[in-house]
Amino acid sequence: MFENTNKEMPFEIAKETMKAHRLRNIMACLAIALTTVLITVICGAGISTVDALLAESDIKPGPGTNGLGIYGDMDTLDKVRKESQVEWADIARPCMQGTPRNKEFAGNEVKFLAVNQEYYGHHYVNLISGNYPKNEGEVLISDTLVKKAGTAITPGQKITLNLIVLQGGKQVELPVDMTISGIYDNPLEMLANYEELYTVETFPDTYNPELNDALSIIYIKFLNVTKFTPEYELNEKIGDICDRVDGKGVVMAISGDISTEIMSSALLLLLVMICGFLLIYNIFYISVVNDIRFIGNMKIIGMTKKQIGMMLNWQIRRLGAAGIILGDLAGTGLNLFVIRLFKMQGFSYSQFYKTETPLFLAAVFSIIFSAITVWISSKKAISLAKKVSPIEASRFRSSGKKKTVFAIFSFTLGGILFCMLFTVFVGYDTEWKVDRKNESDFTIQQWHAIQPMNEAYEPMSEKLVNAIRNLDFVKESYLFYYARNTKDEEASDGFYDQSIGEVKFEGRIKEVMKEEFKKLQWIEEEHIKNGRYKSGILGMDAGALDMEAQNVNILDGKLDAKLFASGDYLIYHPFSSMGKKDYLDYGMRAGEKITLSFWDYTQKEYRTKTFTVMAVVEKIEDNYAGEISLPIQFVISNHAFEEIYKESAKKMVGALHLNTLGRNQRMEQSTIEKMIENDFNPQVQMHSRYQSSMDEQSKREQGVYIGLVMGLIVAFIGLTNIINTMVTDVLSRKIEFATMQSIGMTKYQMIAKICGTGIKMVLISLLLISPLSLPAAKALASIMTTGFRPPVFAQSCILTLFAGMLVVYLTSCILTITLNQKTAVERLREAE
Amino acid sequence: MKILEVKELVKHYGQDENLIKAVDYSSFSAQKGEFIAIVGTSGSGKTTLLNLIGGLDTPDSGEIIIEGQKISDMKPDELTIFRRRKIGFVFQNYNLVTVLNSYKNIIMPVKLDGNKVDKEYIHQITSILGIENKMKSYPNQLSGGQQQRVAIARALSSKPALILADEPTGNLDSKTSQEVMGLLKATSREFNQTVIMITHNEEIAQLADRIIHIEDGKIVGGEDNV
Known about the structure:
The complex is a heterodimer of chains A (832) and B (226). Chain A is α+β, with helices and mostly antiparallel strands. Chain A is built from 27 helices and 22 strands.
């Protein structure tokens, strides 16, 4: 008897009452659209970043195995193939170390590899034209290298490769005439300056037998391993197999660790959904409260809970759909800029950002998350409407406190997000960013001196150094040496160490290091071998001391370039400072005399020298400029360095800093770049203040645009809640205002009265925004390394206050004008 | 035939010294087609009594039986549907849906129930009430009297067992009040409809077949149909 499924009447009433709620509809649509814009942008940023990270992890040499492999020779390959957990294995045998000295290859790292036939299929080396090499006289070249060469290259064409081979232990140039057998579609196109040439696997045995597979990599495809297999698992597998087959080392896996990015995006998404929830909830809740008597009447006439729900849901679905579609489109448009900005960042994966898939996925995900937000936001309001009885509805009095609290909370949250975004993006300190990476106009760096690489160290050539120093636009130049004590053939786990020196572990340094090891909780034996302690030893031009001083804090002593130039002084940079006061209790002190015995591995002897410690310094936090940086511990003058390491010093040039006349920085940059390219040493790279400025300026422009837009949206969401609360409050007190006007309240007094409520909400919010947004803005600036500028933060708080006050005042004026379109008497009569 | 029975109905609010006995062991019954006026001063409990009969409020004790069904045993949704089918309400302030025209307001209970509208019946009601040419008008286009007539038509549209009218002439002038009361009585006769009307106006009450007096929640006269 009591079944009821009738929808027609509720939908009809829903349709008709929707037309009567124009203001509510606009507010709801706007709120949903704004929330959706933000959700779309966050989804876009998150998905595109995850996509880029995964692409980066895919794009590495040996793409068929994500670069997973071990070092070994042909015998090792046979053993690996017999392992049960191996699906397949291929060998890539470098025919020489480094890049062939061909003009066409300048500016690129070009690996000339001898591979087995199966390698091509396994690693996506697909032919565009011609054939795979069949003999030692044939070479396969990539389509991207053809483009870079700039000349027409076709299969069958002759090419002379200028190889550097080992003959009698020495490196000699060997031109080898070859025929281009074919051109392949480069699967590693995304690696900007990296190319691979291929020939048959026996080539090194004929042309460079002394190389002896020192650099050969066996790429291994394991069964049941995907790109999502965790890094530790991959490294465990590869380590095991290396041990079993007596491999020479492993090529460590770097899987795309996306957990941080997913967590950050999820957190931000949650924040925005909360922001949106507060606003949308308030709008629907206020709407239901205003209509509570109407809903009560419907129940009296006979509308059931279910039918009430149908009626309200009909309206909410339509408002939700309109808002979500609008917001999704706007957000997708904004995403194009956001992804472009990310592409310009200096992360290793920045180049892998693309728009197509992320934009589509972001649009889809944002629809889902926005719909969830709308659904959750409207649930409470619908629930109230459904459960209120006719009697309760007739007696329902909303205190208004709930919606005021929500409005304050929403504005506070919006204000915090606005201050954060404004401070970070508008306050993007380009000068600070440039200074923290560049202490001079141009830095020519031997990268292998400062980081391990999976190829042997190739010294920066003296010829290049001198040529650059003698350029006519160079005002001053400073040379830096990095002591190197590792024999390059002794690769450790597939990696060749960065430049590290050795001193005899005795005397004062032994005392100091024992204390430092204790503080750092290091195991002494891991850093001491054959009675020698490994550490960074830097030789520096005395003239560069002032420049380096900008990047360090002095814990003890004083820096004096004249004294330093004598060669009798040493600057000490401890591994563990952990605060000046603590360190000076146990560590090295300025003024001490210290005798160090430096190990020269080429001559197999110690060279001893006594220094006076000029100063004890520590690196300024979050600063990447300057050569005095861990693991550098001992800093001596170039004069002293050359005295100690003699001829070996020439192969230990780690960096060359230049300050130029600066008349035409673009020309200066391109001149130096060309010289480095033509030197064919890919381990030598340059960075400059000029390039950094250009990059940072461009990032700033993009960032300001995006930051302002997003900041305005979040602030607007918060403001909308204030407006909505003020409007509904005033409309529900129409009679009260009409009564007050009928007994003498003027329009200006009415504006002031309405303003008062709004200003209270804004001021309470601001009391919360200022203290909460400061640490948040600092944290975000730190994460995004944009620099934190207190004046910009103060600006953001002032803007928030100003925006709030302005909106409150304008809303008060508009409401007063709107209400006064009818006289007080007319409004009172209406109420009767 | 008894259409309504109210037995020992109690509704109290508050406690101890704040206890208000809105309805205090009240009992009465109504026959089919009877027109009853419940009269009492302000605060006597007549609105509470009407709300209890209409299932809008729940009694603390006692029984209400409409057409043989005990409404006190029903769940809220069952009560709503019962109310839609068996009870028509006429309010002092009409309570029409402002966004629907007169016709849609009138047929609303029928449509909510998913039933087919008896157009002939509706025409008959509206003719008697004199609003047949106002079907396309919206409530804000009608006078107070016309709106109340639409409300009466809505109350009758589902052919309910009972019409409950809460001060139906409260917002009308005396002339219109007389007109509306006349129409209410006429439709009650025409459709053999039981009407229970609340009023504080003794003059209006005289038009009823029976007057029940209520004082301090107690029925003090007219409870039996003599």
